[in-house]
Design a protein that fits this description.
By secondary structure, the chain is an alpha/beta fold. It has 18 helices and 17 strands. The structure holds iron/sulfur cluster. The site of iron/sulfur cluster (SF4) has 13 residues, from α2.
């Protein structure tokens, strides 16, 4: 929302008629600026004013959706240059390149590898989003067969890559309902591409030899009624990639340049033959500011760090990741099972619960709501002290769940022992290991003793 309330106010009828449900036009303007009401809530705006305000309030980087259904990928609509200013919203799509020059068995293996990827971090599945299908064989029928195969045998969102416009659009028609990204649309092919893009309703991957060239192509496409575009400045290496991506984002956010106000795509797969360099380029471009990165490898060692990096970049730095407060029953604990406690900072929960699961020993894991703060931070702020934990025990009836009255607390919380001995009468407080990775050994040896 680029427009401020005072600027909106100038465009309103200023009759204070209250038909919008608010007392004054000024109140309406202020609420509109923060997204609290919609333009349509005022029935007295002329079509021209509505269009003007609509355009002025549009996000500086357009939200573009590629694909359809549950696997659709939304990219763009970012509002800041730096993650710590607010957050990044729509995470970079990760695509795997498949060429129609590859053998059938190689293609099959690649697709199988991607389908079988099963990475999880802090309870979140980390996935590949797209297949980037590339026409390199010179045989249109072969490319169409590759597209048809990917369309029919996978649910992945598709990017179609072909310098041959005929092959590009004939294959796009085969999977139009999947809403593929059609790439590249250039100054050379855009006149013939525009009618087909409009007919298909698919997003255009705009490629330019320079930023100026991209501006001229997006401007023409926009004038022709094409709204969804993804930009490729054609960067050849990491440095050029970061420079081009930064220039595009800065121009859109800081200069309000609408013709660059679209998400971007980058091709680490074409920048380097060396897989380490490709991974490095991908990592840099996920950070700054690619909407999609296209990669050539499917090895877990190559993909997992990039998926985790993307996950980290796109979590909200203002809000720690949390899990619900409750007593988690791991396995089928009974009255003799150990009782452990930790905070609701997601990483704490997943480390401790995974460690308990590793022992195959049923246990009660008490997770106290600390608003996502870890053990020591929440102790100092009074959210994980003796009194708060005693209240938790009373709330969840821990007295009745076990007969041994022993509580294992995180090893870093030594200062909690005396507080808990005072607040939890009759309970023995046991200091657990300092590292989560030592919990299995601790439970198997110390607890069993
Ligand atoms: Fe003002 Fe429109 Fe609201 Fe009436 S309906 S008070 S004109 S904003």
């Amino acid at each position: 929302m680029a427009l401020k309330g005072a600027a909106i106010m100038k465009k309103l009828p200023k009759t204070n008629c209250k038909d919008c449900g608010l007392a004054t036009c000024f109140a309406f303007a202020m609420k509109l600026a923060t997204g609290g009401v919609k333009l349509d809530d005022c029935p007295h705006l002329s079509v021209e004013v509505k269009e003007e305000l609509d355009a002025a309030m549009a996000p500086p980087i357009k939200l573009v959706t590629i694909g359809s259904g549950a696997n659709a990928l939304a990219i763009g609509e970012e509002e800041v240059m730096f993650r710590h200013e607010k957050t990044f919203f729509n995470e970079t799509g990760i695509a795997i390149l498949i060429s129609d020059k590859e053998s059938e068995s190689d293609i099959e293996e690649k697709i199988r590898n991607i389908k079988e990827l099963d990475f999880e971090r802090i309870g979140q599945k980390l996935n590949i989003n797209l297949l980037a299908l590339s026409f390199e064989s010179g045989d249109k029928a072969k490319f169409e067969a590759l597209v048809k195969n990917a369309y029919e045998t996978t649910d992945f969102t598709l990017i179609l890559i072909s310098e041959n416009t005929d092959a590009l659009f004939s294959s796009a028609f085969l999977c139009a309902d999947r809403k593929p990204l059609v790439y590249p649309i250039t100054k050379e092919n855009m006149s013939s591409a525009i009618p087909k893009l409009k007919e298909l309703g698919v997003p255009a991957g705009v490629k330019g030899g320079s930023i100026e060239e991209i501006i001229s192509v997006t401007s023409e496409l926009k004038d022709a009624g094409i709204e969804e575009m993804v930009l490729d400045p054609g960067s050849k290496d990491i440095l050029a990639g970061i420079t081009d991506q930064t220039l595009i984002r800065r121009s859109a956010l800081k200069k309000g340049l609408r013709s660059l106000g679209y998400p971007t795509i980058a091709f680490p797969c074409f920048m380097y033959q060396d897989s380490f360099k490709e991974a490095l380029a991908a990592s840099a471009l996920i950070t700054k500011y690619a909407g999609i990165v296209v990669l050539s490898h499917t090895d877990p060692w190559f993909l997992f760090p990039l998926l985790v990096h993307r996950f980290n970049i796109y979590t909200d730095p203002r809000r720690p990741m949390t899990v619900d407060e409750k007593v988690y029953e791991i396995g089928n604990p009974d009255k003799n099972s150990p009782v452990l406690i930790s905070t609701n900072y997601a990483l704490d929960y997943f480390i401790v619960s995974a460690a308990i699961e590793e022992t195959n020993m049923p246990a009660y894991l008490c997770i106290k709501d600390t608003e996502g703060l870890g053990v020591m931070a929440s102790w100092t702020s009074g959210k994980f002290n003796g009194e708060a934990i005693a209240e938790f025990f009373a709330k969840y009836g821990m007295e009745d769940k076990v007969k041994h009255k022993k509580l294992i607390i995180p090893g870093v919380a030594k200062k909690l022992v005396a507080e808990l001995e005072e607040e939890l009468t009759g309970w023995e407080i046991i200091l657990g290991p300092l590292e989560g990775s030592d919990i299995p050994k601790f439970l198997s040896e110390e607890w069993k003793k």
